[in-house]
Design goal:
- The protein is an all-alpha fold.
- Helices cover 82% and strands 0% of the residues.
- The mean pLDDT is 92.
Length: 39
Amino acid sequence: MPLIEKIEEVITENDTTFSSFVIQACEYALENIESDKKR
C-alpha cells in the first residue's frame, strides 16, 4: 500500500485532519531526533 493511502486510512480511522497528522508526525520526529542525539 502506498504511503499516502496508509496516511489517509489512519486519518479516517482517527477522525483527524491531514494538517493535524503532519503536526503530530513532526512533533514525534523532533522528539526522537532529540532522543537519538542524547545516546
